[in-house]
Write a structure and sequence with these properties.
There is one protein chain. It contains four helices and no strands.
């Protein structure tokens, strides 16, 4: 997929908070912005635009209650489940 560079202004404090927020959930600002744009496009028009197959699969699984894990009683149980396939 071809990319383009954008240049826009953002309040410095908002940018700092956004960077921290997205870092905490495992995204950089570029990934978050691309997700925002994809989410903003009507579903009928973005069938061929999505570049997030893992995210789409996770959303599909959640909506259809498949491949779900837990609940867990401890953090250790959750981590053991996460790394069970390694």
């Amino acid at each position: 997929m071809a990319t383009v560079n954008l240049n826009f202004s953002v309040d410095e404090n908002i940018l700092k908070l956004a960077n921290k927020h997205f870092e905490n959930i495992g995204l950089n600002l570029n990934e978050a912005f691309n997700n925002f744009l994809l989410d903003s496009i009507d579903d009928d028009n973005n069938e061929n635009l999505t570049g997030w197959p893992a995210t789409e699969k996770a959303i599909y699984d959640c909506e259809h209650n498949i491949n779900m894990h837990g609940p867990f009683n401890t953090f250790e149980e959750m981590m053991a489940d996460i790394y069970a396939d390694d």
